[in-house]
Structures are given as C-alpha cells and as structure tokens.
C-alpha cells in the first residue's frame, strides 16, 4: 500500500534556503510508486504553507507557487487530501527544525516522523551540552571553555583567565546553538577573543571557546535506531581556512573525497566513535558525525548533525551511495526507521500499571 508522506522544509532559520534545495532533491528522488508526497513549506517568517501533491519532477518555483497558507498546523500534519499521514519527514536545518521543536510538536500530536527525536535534536544543536555528553562517553575532543552571557557580563576577567589557563591561540569562538557557522570566529589575540565573544553573544546566551587546530575534516554517516550502520569516512577537502557562513554555502569552496584517504585504523576508530556519539546523544534514524584529524594522527570529535545536509550532492547521501545505498533507497530506509521508532514508542507505557 502506498504511504502518505509530508515533507516539511524551509523554516525560520539561516539555513532556510539550503532546506529548500534539500526538499527539491528529496521530492525528485523519492519513489512515487511507493509514496504519495505532500509538501509543507515554512516561510522564513515562520508562516506555514501547504502545497499540492508532488507527482513528477519539480523546481522551486512550482513548489512555492502552488502553496496556500494554513492555520491549523496539527491538522495539516495529520491529514492531507482526506488521507491520514503515515509519516512526516522534517527536512529542516538549524533552529526551529533541527533543534527538537518540530519534533516536539509531532510527538504531542502522536505523528510518526523521520529522524531524531526531541532530545537528540536539541543536544545536537547545543554544542556545549553535546560536548558534555561526549566527555561522559569518553570521546576525545579538543579542549574548550563554555560560559553563559550572564557569567561573561559579571566575571569577564575570570572567564578570560580560565580560557588563558586551558587554551592557546588560535582559538575558535562559537555560539553554542545555531550550526550554520554564523557568529563563529577564529581568533589570534586577546583583543580578537573579546571581540569574538561579543559577536558570538549576539546569536546565543551561551558561548564555547575551543582550542584551534590545523586539521583535516572527516565525516561519518550513521543510520539506525538500536542497530547502527556506519559509512566509510569521507573528507571535506578545504580550500579556505575555515567554513564561515559565506564559505559554507558557496560552491567550489570544498570538494568531497569519498572515501577519505586515511589509514584503515583511523577509519575504524572514527566509525566506532560515530556510533558512540550517536548513543551518547540518544539519536534515532540518522546522524553525521564530524571529526578533526590533526597532523600527528589524533582524532577528535567535533560535532554531530542530526539533520545533515541532505541534497543529492551533500556529504551524507554521498557517504551512503559509497556504501551502495542509493539516495532514493536511503530516503526509504530512513522512512522505515521512523515508522519502526514510532511503533516502539507506541508500545511504551506512560501510565502506572493498574
Ligand atoms: N577548534 C577548531 N579548530 C580548527 N577549525 C575549527 C575548529 N572549530 C571549528 N573549526 C572550523 O569551523 C567550521 C565550523 O565549525 P563547527 O563547529 O563545525 O560549526 P557548525 O555547527 O557551524 O558547522 C568547521 O567545519 C571547521 O572548518
Ligand atoms: Mg560543522
């Protein structure tokens, strides 16, 4: 039987436009013999729009033109064209989508969805909480100092002192939440550090200052719920010093090397660390785990992405293609994992035994 699926994309986030590209890519690749595909677009201002069922190949203009504003969000997620929705696929990146908020709405409404739940989504979005959980799991990370805006305002000197004790230049200053490189800076001096911290606090109430390293950037894909599968690692071969917001979304700034040209042993360690990171954050469905590999061969986990870039040409789908799981099969696998996870949840009791 054909399944009814709602694809949510766009969203109130700096990654709104990349989400539209992802949605186009998924809408074109998804097997329409198996799925009735319905788009649900969230504008950059947060307004929701419902589109017509996707039947053939699409481009972004048809997508947006066919959409009509909707006011009953829960209803739009539950039922389309008189049919019960089997599963929702949130193709959203960044705040208001990758951070657990949409997932919470779907949980409350008891609607199955693809990918990570509330907890892992919000952990993945919060670099400081993620680091604390990775530490607890024994995963090697770069040294860091994290603090709140209120602590910075009140104890600037002692915060600077603890940074100075633990780290040396260059350092990376990051807003704890966001994930689009916005507000991130590489700093080389105390003046730059202070300025970087001030900038980062424009984007969040929590900031992480991290040891800067010269490193290759290697990524591993993970899928599964309880039983996990990992990909061979791939490398983001950098043409720039680091990926700030502009560099990240410009073509030609990076090329992907899949599989990465690294030692077999390093591959093994990263694949294992990727599953540990998945478990540390209690992930479901999928994760892309990102690593730094320094010149001396040290491997550090940098972060996990609970809704990684997902166009046909993004790292995560290409990592799976390299494992002989084609893009449309990957989409189907993730849908099935989402349904499996939903059914597991249904069997969990929320009440005291009578
Ligand atoms: N400690 C670090 N040392 C060297 N480069 C870093 C460091 N932290 C971040 N970077 C660079 O900045 C980029 C963005 O940082 P990241 O923590 O991955 O944030 P985002 O969530 O925006 O992807 C990384 O891909 C890397 O190029
Ligand atoms: Mg990153």
UniProtKB/TrEMBL annotation:
- Cofactor annotation remark: Binds 2 magnesium or manganese ions per subunit.
Keywords annotated in UniProt: ATP-binding, Cell shape, Cell wall biogenesis/degradation, Cytoplasm, Ligase, Magnesium, Manganese, Metal-binding, Nucleotide-binding, Peptidoglycan synthesis
* Enzyme Commission identifier(s): 6.3.2.4
Q: Where does Mg(2+) 1 bind?
A: 290, 303
Name the residues annotated as catalytic in the UniProt entry.
Answer: 15, 180, 314
Recorded catalytic activity of this chain's protein: 2 D-alanine + ATP = D-alanyl-D-alanine + ADP + phosphate + H(+)
Which GO terms of the molecular function aspect are on file? ATP binding; D-alanine-D-alanine ligase activity; metal ion binding
Q: What cofactor requirement does the entry state?
A: Mg(2+); Mn(2+)
Pfam families for the chain? Dala_Dala_lig_C, Dala_Dala_lig_N
Gene Ontology biological-process entries:
cell wall organization; peptidoglycan biosynthetic process; regulation of cell shape
The cross-references to InterPro entries, in alphabetical order and at most eight, read: ATP-grasp, ATP_grasp_subdomain_1, D-Ala_lig_Van_CS, D_ala_D_ala, Dala_Dala_lig_C, Dala_Dala_lig_N, PreATP-grasp_dom_sf
Which parts of the chain span the membrane according to its record? none
Residues covered by the ATP-grasp domain: 131-336
Q: Report the PANTHER family cross-referenced here.
A: D-ALANINE--D-ALANINE LIGASE, D-ALANINE--D-ALANINE LIGASE A
What this chain does, per the entry, is described as: Cell wall formation.
Entry's family note: Belongs to the D-alanine--D-alanine ligase family.
Q: Which named protein is this? A: D-alanine--D-alanine ligase
Record organism? Abyssicoccus albus
Could you tell me the gene encoding this protein?
ddl
């Amino acid at each position: 039987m054909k399944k009814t699926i709602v694809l949510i994309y766009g969203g109130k986030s700096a990654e709104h436009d990349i989400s539209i590209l992802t949605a186009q890519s998924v809408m074109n690749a998804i097997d329409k013999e198996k799925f009735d595909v319905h788009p649900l677009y969230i504008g950059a201002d947060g307004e929701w729009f419902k589109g017509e069922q996707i039947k053939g190949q699409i481009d972004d203009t048809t997508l947006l033109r066919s959409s009509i504003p909707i006011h009953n969000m829960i209803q739009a997620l539950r039922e389309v064209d008189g049919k019960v929705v089997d599963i929702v696929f949130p193709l959203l990146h960044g705040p208001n989508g990758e951070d657990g908020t949409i997932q919470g709405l779907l949980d409350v409404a008891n609607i199955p969805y693809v990918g990570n739940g509330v907890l892992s989504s919000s952990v993945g979005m919060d670099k400081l909480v993620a680091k604390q959980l990775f530490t607890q799991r024994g995963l090697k990370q770069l040294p860091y100092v994290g603090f709140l805006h209120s602590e910075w305002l009140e104890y600037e000197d002692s915060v600077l002192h603890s940074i100075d004790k633990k780290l040396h230049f260059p350092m990376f200053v990051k807003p704890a939440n966001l994930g689009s490189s916005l507000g991130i800076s590489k700093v080389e001096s105390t003046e730059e550090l202070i300025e970087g911290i001030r900038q980062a606090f424009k984007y969040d109430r929590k900031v992480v200052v991290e040891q800067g390293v010269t490193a290759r950037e290697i990524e591993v894909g993970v899928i599964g719920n309880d039983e996990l599968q990992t990909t061979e690692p791939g490398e983001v071969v950098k043409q720039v010093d680091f990926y700030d917001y502009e560099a990240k979304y410009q073509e030609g700034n990076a090329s992907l090397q899949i599989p990465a040209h690294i030692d077999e042993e390093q591959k093994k360690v990263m694949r294992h660390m990727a599953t540990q990171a998945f478990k540390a954050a209690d992930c479901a469905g999928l994760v892309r785990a990102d690593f730094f590999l320094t010149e001396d061969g040290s491997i550090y986990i940098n972060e996990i992405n609970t809704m990684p870039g997902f166009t046909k040409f993004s790292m995560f789908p290409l990592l799976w293609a390299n494992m002989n799981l084609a893009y449309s099969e990957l989409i189907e696998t993730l849908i099935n994992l989402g349904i499996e996870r939903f059914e597991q949840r249904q069997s969990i009791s929320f009440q005291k035994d009578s």
